[in-house]
Every structure is written in C-alpha cells, then in structure tokens.
Design brief:
Blueprint lengths: L1 E6 L9 H10 L2 E6 L4 H13 L4 E5 L10 H14 L5 E6 L11 H22 L2 E5 L4 H11 L5 E3 L6 H9 L3 E4 L7 H9 L5 E3 L20 H13 L3 H16 L5
Parallel strand pairs: 1-2, 2-3, 3-4, 4-5, 5-6, 6-7, 7-8
Bound molecules: zinc ion.
C-alpha cells in the first residue's frame, strides 16, 4: 500500500470522490494528499478530509500557473490558511509559474509577480509549520529552492519533478523530496530521476485526474495510478515492491506529519 502524495480529488472529473477513494484502496492506495488550486477547490478538499479523515489529508493551495487567478484569490487563500491551518497538512499546490510564461511579452513581470506570491505563501507555511507541495517545473525549480531556503522551510516536495540533475541534487541535499508520476513508466527523463535520487527522498503521486499516455492512454485517472508509479520505482531500483511501498509511505508520513494508524 502507498500514499498518493498529490491528487486533485476536488476536480469535477472525479465526481464521486468517496468512491474514487474506495477504488484506490482496493488497488493499493490507502490515502491521498488532496491538493487544491484556489479557495473554492480548497474548500472541497477540506470537506472531503472531514468526510474521510483516515483517507484524505488536505492541503490548501494557490496554483501558480493558472492565469485566471489574481491577488484577490491569493488573499482569499491566505485567509483560509489562517482559519484552517490546524486541520491541514500542508500548502499545495503552490509554487512558481512556468508554462503560463511561455511566449508572453511580459514573462519577466509575471515571473516576478509569481515569486512575490510564493513569498507570501511560504511565510504562512513557516508561521504555521506546514509542509509545502510545490509546482516548480524545469527552470522554476532552482528559484523555488532558493525561496524555500530563504524562508527556512523544513518540509517540502517538488511535485511532478522535472529539473536538470544538478538542481535535483541540490534539492535533495537540502532535505526536500521530489515526486514522480505514472510518467515514470514510459518516460526516460523520469526513470533517470529515480535512478539519481535515493529512495529516502522520493514520493509517488497520481496528480489525478491528469490523463497520462503510454499504457495509461484511455485508462481512467485516479489515485490508483500512484501504486503503478511505485511499482515502476521498485523496478528501476531493483528492490522488492513491498519494501519500496513501505519506504514511500513512510516518506509521505514524514513530509506531511501523518500519524501511522
Ligand atoms: Zn497538481
């Protein structure tokens, strides 16, 4: 059994979240870290965590790569964190914009605004001692690492991690986790990442309801895909699946301060 460390359980593509959890549990995923994108999706995750306290742990997030979200949305999320910090296990997903900068004339301004927003969120994570689930792909990863260290954040994961190996090495040396998705089954870049990083610094996630390619084309997306990712991590590491799943679950518990129950 394993924990799905990053799942958008709030998403309308997973209309019956409790049933989604049941299917996940029958397929080796005993719980999910439910990340949000804005105040509305965060509220859904809080409700789901209350409805299934042994299977859902909520994070409150502000997605850095969604153009529709502005400062008023960030204000609302900050207020939500202040109100609910005792009921959540982390902030996520939060991070830095990357994909939304592509081809934009004002990319530098957008990037600066993104860094300022992440600073506000990391200040909250530090104040309430919360783990951080980061969206910081490719060229954003090094900047996000710098922000984490400046705020002295102790617990963080770079979700769906993609960065040059030297940046990954610095992230792991700093004591942070990196997470792989089911893409590890069919993408060489992710397999190389798993080879590079020790099991002590790895997590698996579905990022459901994201639709994957390869063997997953046409397969419905859900937390269960995290178990398939774990299986592939075990293959790449040439270690027994049960040991690897135990290790990955322990890592998620350490990162998000989950109690073993
Ligand atoms: Zn996500």
């Amino acid at each position: 059994m394993v924990i799905d460390s990053h799942c958008h359980l709030h998403d309308p593509a997973l209309p019956d979240a409790l049933d989604t959890l049941r299917v996940g549990q029958s397929l080796d995923v005993w719980g999910v870290i439910a990340v949000g994108c804005d105040a509305e999706t965060n509220a859904r995750n809080l409700a789901l965590a209350a409805a299934a306290p042994k299977a859902v742990w909520a994070c409150l997030g502000f997605h850095p790569d969604q153009d529709r979200l502005g400062d008023a949305d960030l204000d609302a999320v900050e207020q939500q964190v202040a109100e609910h910090h005792a009921r959540i296990v982390g902030l996520g997903e939060v991070g830095l914009p990357w994909y939304s900068l592509e081809g934009k004339a004002d990319a530098a301004e957008r990037a600066a605004r993104g860094r300022a927003r992440l600073d506000r969120l990391l200040a909250l994570a530090a104040r309430y001692d919360l783990a951080v689930s980061l969206h910081a792909p490719h060229g954003a990863a090094a900047d996000a690492l710098e922000s984490l260290q400046r705020h002295r954040i102790e617990r963080a994961v770079f979700h769906w991690h993609k960065a040059p190996p030297e940046v990954t090495a610095r992230i792991v040396d700093a004591g942070y986790f990196v997470s792989v998705t089911p893409e590890v089954v069919y993408r060489e870049r992710d397999r190389a990442l798993v080879e590079q990083v020790s099991l002590e610094s790895l997590l698996v996630e579905s990022d459901a309801p994201w639709k994957y390619g390869g063997e997953f084309a046409g397969v419905s997306s859900g937390p269960w895909l995290a178990a398939r990712a774990a299986e592939e991590v075990a293959k790449v590491k040439r270690e027994p699946l049960e040991d690897v799943m135990f290790r990955l679950s322990t890592n998620a518990c350490r990162l998000f301060h989950l109690a073993w129950t």
